[in-house]
Amino acid sequence: VQLQASGGGLVQAGGSLRLSCAASRRTVTNNGMGWFRRAPGKEREFVAAIDWHGGNTRYADFVKGRFTISRDNAKTTVNLQMNSLKPEDTAVYYCAANRGAYSSTYSTTYNVWGQGTQVTVSS
User: Are β-strands 67-72 and 91-98 bridged in parallel, bridged antiparallel, or unpaired?
Assistant: First the structure.
């Protein structure tokens, strides 16, 4: 399976972006999915995750109340709605498919990664 992330771009602080991750196969409908990000000079960090049916979600503390993860299994897509963006949200955002069906904050539990999409938030 391949994952294709899209929706990144340049936005002013306080603005919004919606990232999408499209899977090449329907098999990901049985997998938990997640979003991670890597800012310049920093390690990759967890952003948000969702279980296979969308009933359980997890968020990093720094995005709670601002970001929302959702999935559409009919279209095999996972979305990340990002509101109230801050300059510190600037990073390359990656979507990933988990080995299991649950939502997970640990990158080691994900075995398929997309290519990343750049998000730049100007002050």
Answer: unpaired
**107 with 46: CB under 8 angstroms?**
yes
Cβ 69 vs Cβ 49: under 8 Å: yes
* Contact between residue 71 and residue 78 where contact means Cβ atoms under 8 Å apart: yes
Q: Measure Cα distances from 50 to 14, 28, 80 in Å.
A: 25, 12, 10
Please tell me the distance from the alpha carbon of residue 11 to that of residue 31, in angstroms, as a whole number: 31
d(CA 46, CA 80): 13
Strand partners, 31: none
Chain Cα centroid distance, residue 60: 11
Digit-coded pLDDT (tens) for 16-75: 999 999 988 766 788 999 999 999 999 999 999 999 998 899 999 999 999 999 998 787
Interval 74-90: pLDDT, tens = 878 999 999 999 999 99
